[in-house]
Design goal:
heterodimer, A: 122 residues, mainly beta, seven-stranded mixed beta sheet, four-stranded antiparallel beta sheet, 11 strands, B: 113 residues, 13 strands
Chain lengths: 122, 113
């Protein structure tokens, strides 16, 4: 069975950093593009960043460009999101999500993790 | 970026009745090379991650009950729940994956009347 397990969230001061991880299992990780999607408390879904299966292509929403970095280690079946210069508005549950089809980047997400909560507050 | 809007923000429907949710994209999400609309629908229940219901605007994901259907063309899309069940209480989101910068609609909350 496909499993995605996020970790690395926590309470951090404004301007601080965290590294989020997503451990994947149950599928050929390197064949699938992955994304991070966040959800602020009581709010809707916001796509944050995506990465191709090889890791050679990365994409970011404008509000995190230059502050967040997505990466993956296909030998460890793990997706990462380095989040720097955090702001209060980055407070959210961060989900990792798997693309439905292998070898594609543009597609819907068929599996999601349970999320890791990032709280930015002094 | 492609902006997605949804209407209504919320709706309450009696059990067994039809629920209709609308989604509009700020530009076309049709790929003329394959004639497919790059539009998906998700269901999110409280304290759960989203669940994929529909992709290509009208293709049901495996295991999704057939009371859920998607339709649309151009920039206007619809998710229909033909006979609302108690377990369908949730927030529903549309998402475009035409652009490499994916975007979601703001969500529509569905409740029982």
């Amino acid at each position: 069975d496909v499993q995605l397990v996020e970790s690395g969230g926590g309470l951090v001061q404004p301007g601080g950093s965290l590294r989020l991880s997503c451990a994947a299992s149950g599928f050929t990780f390197s064949s699938y593009a992955m994304s991070w999607v966040r959800q602020a408390p009581g709010k809707g879904l916001e796509w944050v960043s995506g990465i191709s299966g090889s890791g050679g292509s990365t994409y970011y929403t404008d509000s995190v460009k230059g502050r967040f970095t997505i990466s993956r280690d296909n030998s460890k079946n793990t997706l990462y999101l380095q989040v720097n210069s955090l702001r209060a508005e980055d407070t959210a549950a961060y989900y990792c999500a798997k693309m439905l089809w292998s070898s594609w980047y543009r597609g819907p997400f068929d599996y999601w993790g349970q999320g890791t909560l990032v709280t930015v507050s002094s | 970026d492609i902006v997605m809007t949804q209407s209504p923000d919320s709706l309450a429907v009696s059990l067994g009745e039809r629920a209709t949710i609308n989604c509009k994209s700020s530009q076309s999400v049709l790929d003329s090379s394959n004639n497919k609309y790059y539009l998906a629908w998700y269901q999110q229940k409280p304290r759960q991650p989203p669940k994929l219901l529909i992709y290509w605007a009208s293709t049901r994901e495996s295991g999704v009950p057939d009371r859920f259907s998607g339709s649309g063309s151009g920039t206007d899309f619809t998710l229909t729940i033909s006979s609302l069940q108690a377990e369908d209480v949730a927030v529903y989101y549309c998402q475009q994956y035409f652009n490499t910068l994916f975007t979601f609609g703001p969500g529509t909350k569905v409740d029982i009347k």
